[in-house]
């Protein structure tokens, strides 16, 4: 089985490549656009802009399985400044990649989707609740974009029969080394890591700090991708989540303690664009595959601090 990883230099794609290359049994084709390739045994790199359909077809030609990680991450910061551009970019990129795979020799697609498609709720949400209402607030556009891409994959598998298997993975908030630490485009967690390491004063938190997030390490998500690469024919969609939600305030406190920033001044800004909480159940995926997250939050945060200190002037 030849596996193509589309978007292999991004946060998720890079960890997927590292996990697959580490097993050393199946050839991996990894695509990159602007970021340079990295060393990984048994990996062949292909430069590809998935905005171009011809390049997309050439990049994944002959691949049995395709893991779709390509695209732009629509964080709160990105959506605040430009609510439409990243959504349209992702539609073009993922649609072209999926179309190229479905019309080629590919038998299986694993689509890394998002939990932003869920409606607002105080309850724990399982997969059946994904389409029961509109995504909340500023996630409306990006949430519906992910829903459409999932339906496109389901269409290719169940109705057209162009693919034997399609698996959607909806991870919660993904973090880890090689994340985006740019405050203009990154998630709140790498932004907090950057401010802690650089000893910013004050460190400002959006909202009251009590909003909760479910964090999953990119390496654990890569393990989830690996778990479904030999899935049975058909279409499935799964949440990929850790068992616990943690507050933004407790995440910052853990970072401060781990980095020894004892005299940090923290200010609350009051306004928060994101929801107070988004709780999803990952139990169905765990039962179906036996996958479990291996990285604790404290272990992951400490690792991220160490990595950022060593690489902040490199990437």
Describe this entry's structure for a reader:
The structure is a single chain. The protein is an alpha/beta fold and 315 residues long. It has a single domain, classed as NAD(P)-binding Rossmann-like Domain (Rossmann fold), CATH 3.40.50.720. It has ten helices and 13 strands. It has helices spanning 11-23, 53-59, 76-81, 85-103, 140-159, 188-197, 218-227, 248-259, 283-289, 297-311, and strands at residues 3-6, 28-32, 43-47, 65-68, 108-112, 165-171, 173-175, 203-205, 212-213, 215-217, 234-240, 246-247, 266-268. Strands 3-2-1-4-5-6-11 form a seven-stranded parallel β-sheet, sandwiched between helices. The chain has a two-stranded parallel ribbon with strand order 7-10. The mean pLDDT is 92.
Which descriptors apply to this entry?
two-stranded parallel ribbon, Rossmann fold, 10 helices, 7-stranded parallel beta sheet
Q: So, CATH architecture?
A: 3-Layer(aba) Sandwich
Major sheet strand order:
3-2-1-4-5-6-11
User: Measured on Cα atoms, how large is the radius of gyration?
Assistant: 19 Å
Unreliably modeled segments: none
Helical segment count: 10
Averaged pLDDT, please? 92
N- and C-termini, Cα separation: 33 Å
For the biggest sheet, the summary is: 7 strands, parallel
| Shape, principal axes of CA atoms | globular
The H/E string reads EHEEHEHHEHEEHEEEHEEHEHH
Total domain units: 1
Strand content: 15-25%
CATH class: Alpha Beta
Sheet/helix structural class: alpha/beta
């Amino acid at each position: 089985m030849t596996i193509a990883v589309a978007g292999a230099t991004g946060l998720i794609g890079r960890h997927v490549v590292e996990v697959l290359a580490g097993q050393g049994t199946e050839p991996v084709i990894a695509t990159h656009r602007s970021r340079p390739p990295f060393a990984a045994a048994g990996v062949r790199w292909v430069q590809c802009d998935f905005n171009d359909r011809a390049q997309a077809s050439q990049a994944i030609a002959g691949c049995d399985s395709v893991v779709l990680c390509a695209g732009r991450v629509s964080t709160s910061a990105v959506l605040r400044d430009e609510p439409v551009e990243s959504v349209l970019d992702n539609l073009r990129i993922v649609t072209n990649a999926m179309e190229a795979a479905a019309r080629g020799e590919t038998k299986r697609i694993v689509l890394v989707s998002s939990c932003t498609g869920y409606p607002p709720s105080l309850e724990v949400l399982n997969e059946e609740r994904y389409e029961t209402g509109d995504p909340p607030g500023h996630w409306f556009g990006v949430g519906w974009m992910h829903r459409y891409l999932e339906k496109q994959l389901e269409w290719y598998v169940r109705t057209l029969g162009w693919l034997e298997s399609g698996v959607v993975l909806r991870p919660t908030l993904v973090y880890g080394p090689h994340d985006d630490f740019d405050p203009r485009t990154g998630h709140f967690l790498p932004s907090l890591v950057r401010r802690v390491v650089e000893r910013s004063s004050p460190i400002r938190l959006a909202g009251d700090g009590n909003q909760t997030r479910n964090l999953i390490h990119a390496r654990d998500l890569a393990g989830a991708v690996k778990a479904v690469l030999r899935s049975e024919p058909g279409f499935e969609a799964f949440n990929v989540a850790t068992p616990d939600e943690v507050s933004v305030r407790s995440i910052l406190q853990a970072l401060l303690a781990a980095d020894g920033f004892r005299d940090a001044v923290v200010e609350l800004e009051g306004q928060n664009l994101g929801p107070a909480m988004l709780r999803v159940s990952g139990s169905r995926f765990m039962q179906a595959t036996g996958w479990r997250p291996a990285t604790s939050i404290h272990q992951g945060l400490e690792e991220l601090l160490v990595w950022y200190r060593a690489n902040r002037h490199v990437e």
